[in-house]
Amino acid sequence: MKKLILVICFVIFASNNAFAALTTVTFDDLPASGNGIPSGYNGLNWVGMMFVQPYPYDDANNGGRLGTVANIQSNSNFDFVGANIFTLIPGSSRTLRVAGFGVNNQLMYDQIVTISDVASAYYTFNYIGINRLLFTPQTGGNPPTLIDNFTFDSNSTTATPTPIPAAAWLLGSGLMGLAGLRRKKA
Q: What structural domains and CATH numbers belong to the chain?
């Protein structure tokens, strides 16, 4: 009986654990500089962004350049983990607002970061269950902002809620049935 319960618990645990499939967008496979990033590239819609070739002082290779206001959108929820963000011209630091929106365009996350003016730096955000990102420069004048190694999970961890009362009734009735069988045998 104990072995059966352990096997059932293992099957339930194993079926509920999915491994995250992170995607890192490097923009290295885009064809030419100065073009807009194609809609649907890596499963996302890139609005207000264009692709630029690497520069001699750019340690992050190719990157997507942010426009004045850049949106990254999806038809379904995704988890934004982080990205390398840097300015195009050394010595020109700036701050950048990174906002994450969910269902019905509801603001879920909002963070302002100071971008390195010396080298590319990876910024971790961990925005879970969003369908749109908004990048808005806050200070720093005209130097363009670049983004690379954009890391996200298209299999968002947000899920449709399971009705707990029904699950609790099912579990409770099963436990009562097991207890009844045990008493009957004793």
A: 22-159 (2.60.120.1350)
